[in-house]
C-alpha cells in the first residue's frame, strides 16, 4: 500500500470544510489515503456532531466593509460571507473583514482572492518568462526554478496567501486568520470578492 502525500493545502482545505483542528484533519486525511470525503466521514465518526461539512453549507449571509486610506487616495470594498446572519453581525467577523480590507489597501499587487481565480493564460504567460530566464540552467533543475518562481509570483497577487502587515497578527496569512475564524464560528467564512481603488490607477 503506497502512502499518499498529504500536503498542507489538503489539510487547510479539510479544515475549512469541517472546522476541525489541524492535527485531526491531517490524521483523518492520512487514514483516508487523501480522500477528502472519506476524511470528513472519519472526522464525523470520531468527533460526532461537532463536525459539519461546512463546504456544503451555502455562505449566503455576510458583510460588506470598506476602508479609505487617510488622504482619500486609496479605498477598498470587500464582501466576506458566512452561513448565518448571527455570525455576519459578530464583532470578530466584521473586524476580520475590516482588517483584510486594510491589508488590501496596503498591498497594491493583490488582484485575486485565491489561486484558482488566477486565469490560466496569465499563469502561462508568467511561466514562459521564467522558462526563458532559466533556459541556460541544466534541464533537470529548470522545471523546479520555473515552478518556484511561479509560486512566488502567485503569492504576491493572491489575497489568501498574504502575510498580514499588522504586527499584532504575528506574520499570519489571511488564509490562517480565515481558518481560525471558521473554526471559532463553526461557519463557512468566504472572502467572496474585493475591489481596490487608487487615484490615477
What would the CATH topology of the largest domain be? Tetrahydropterin Synthase, Chain A
The CATH C-level name of the largest domain is Alpha Beta
Strand order of the largest sheet: 1-2-3
Distance between the termini: 55 Å
Biggest sheet descriptor: 3 strands, antiparallel
Regions with little confidence, pLDDT below 50 for 5+ residues: none
Could you tell me the mean pLDDT? 85
Assign the CATH superfamily of the largest domain.
Elongation factor Ts, dimerisation domain
The beta-strand count equals 3
Number of domains: 3
What share of residues are in beta strands?
5-15%
Q: How does the helix and strand content classify structurally?
A: alpha+beta
Shape descriptor: flat
Task: Please provide the ordered H/E string of secondary-structure elements.
Answer: HHHEEHHHHHE
CATH architecture of the largest domain: 2-Layer Sandwich
- Count of helical segments? 8
Radius of gyration: 19 Å
> Helicity level, as a percent range?
40-55%
Which key features would you list for this structure?
single chain, 201 residues, alpha+beta, Helicase, Ruva Protein, domain 3, Tetrahydropterin Synthase, Chain A, 3-stranded antiparallel beta sheet, 8 helices, 48% helix, flat
Amino acid at each position: 500500500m503506497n502512502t499518499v502525500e498529504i500536503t498542507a493545502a489538503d489539510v487547510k482545505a479539510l479544515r475549512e470544510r469541517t472546522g476541525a483542528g489541524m492535527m485531526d484533519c491531517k490524521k483523518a486525511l492520512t487514514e483516508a489515503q487523501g480522500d477528502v470525503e472519506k476524511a470528513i466521514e472519519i472526522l464525523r465518526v470520531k468527533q460526532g456532531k461537532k463536525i459539519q461539512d461546512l463546504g456544503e453549507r451555502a455562505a449566503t449571509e455576510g458583510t460588506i466593509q470598506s476602508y479609505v486610506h487617510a488622504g482619500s487616495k486609496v479605498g477598498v470594498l470587500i464582501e466576506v460571507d458566512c452561513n448565518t446572519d448571527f455570525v455576519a453581525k459578530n464583532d470578530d467577523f466584521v473586524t476580520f473583514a475590516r482588517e483584510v480590507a486594510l491589508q488590501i489597501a496596503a498591498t497594491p499587487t493583490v488582484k485575486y482572492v485565491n489561486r484558482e481565480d488566477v486565469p490560466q493564460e496569465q499563469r502561462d504567460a508568467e511561466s514562459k518568462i521564467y522558462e526563458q530566464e532559466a533556459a541556460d540552467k541544466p534541464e533537470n533543475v529548470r522545471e523546479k526554478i520555473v515552478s518556484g518562481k511561479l509560486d512566488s509570483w502567485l503569492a504576491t497577487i493572491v489575497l489568501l496567501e498574504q502575510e498580514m502587515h499588522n504586527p499584532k497578527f504575528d506574520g499570519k496569512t489571511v488564509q490562517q486568520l480565515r481558518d481560525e475564524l471558521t473554526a471559532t464560528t463553526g461557519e463557512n467564512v468566504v472572502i467572496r470578492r474585493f475591489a481596490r481603488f487608487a487615484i490615477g490607477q
